[in-house]
């Protein structure tokens, strides 16, 4: 929210600067028109003087050649007068000034038109929207997170906009094939620039929105937020760096998301989410359905721990065990189970189920894992029916409690609840 508020404030400031610039430009244009009008008037006057001088020059020359010269007197010069020459030079200079002003205005208009060539990029320049976009993508390809973050107007406290995170992204999928097209300028402060580039083997076509601030251009939509809510306690990491917040911003690139050290991973539709390629916010859609789960190695560890703990309970002769399986209630025919007579064993179905337990996170504490699978157990007991000792296999072996394994520590153990 803070970043959004800052962006809105920048936009309002940009609008005010734009209005002031337009007023100054209008005043300068009026003054320039007055100067041009005066220069044109001087040029016309000089041209008229030149024409008058030129028209009278032949007559003067003829008169001079017919007049005798007195001995010792200097010969009279014929041709253009000094005033005519000065008039020609002054007129030419005025015309030249007018042409320079006009050519400068045309060049300025051509430089600001939508189809103008972008300035050279790759060195962090941002004097046109196209240059800002190309410099941003080039900085990403070069691993220069500082320049890319500056061009994207990012806050300085974003935890994932670092050289280290970007370097890992480029190892997973380098950014290549950058092509920037001329942008569509809505006005002098906003432009949409079309681009094509590659993230690894993936070709990306996307637009960037650029805003002008203090003469330079910044990108308002270059970064992408990774939605990582609901992972409290799992300490999510992105390319090895702590995410820090629920929706950290990242550059376009490739990202590995880790959970809780080496015990957990994110999965989508029961498949691990290995590397997420991100170019726009639409690419983060899988994260909304992703769920934490044990890695396959830790899932096998979970099954082994649950089996070992249950087998300890099955070996107990007591009518009730730490795993549940309580058969101490009086039977339907009034027989009373004899304490210490229980004999329990896994059925064939229960044994197969135990090998294939599906670990599920405890959403009250994501570091604890449980299972909702049914495990079948057979129980044989002795019972006292009015002084008569009877024995047999029960139709029900009692309820098996739910196993929980806490993977927050180095020595996970099973508890039954």
Can you give a write-up of this model?
The chain is rod-shaped, with a radius of gyration of 43 Å. The longest helix is centred in the first third of the chain and has 65 residues. It is built from eight helices and 23 strands. The chain folds into four domains: 79 residues; 97 residues, Nuclear Transport Factor 2, Chain: A; 58 residues, no CATH class; 121 residues, no CATH class. The chain starts with a helix and ends with a strand. It is 38% helix and 24% strand. The protein is α+β, with helices and mostly antiparallel strands and 417 residues long.
Features:
417 residues; alpha+beta; Nuclear Transport Factor 2, Chain: A; 4 domains; six-stranded antiparallel β-sheet; five-stranded antiparallel β-sheet; 38% helix; disordered N terminus; transmembrane; membrane; transmembrane helix
Category by helix and strand content: alpha+beta
Number of domains: 4
Number of helices: 8
The count of DSSP E runs of length 2 or more, i.e. the number of strands, is: 23
Identify the overall geometry: rod-shaped
Strand content: 15-25%
| Major sheet size, sense and barrel closure | 6 strands, antiparallel
Instruction: Quote the average pLDDT.
Output: 78
State the end-to-end CA separation: 42 Å
Low-confidence parts lasting 5 or more residues at pLDDT below 50?
Answer: 1-29, 45-122
The share of residues in helices is 25-40%
What is the rounded Rg?
Answer: 43 Å
Assembly state here?
Answer: single chain
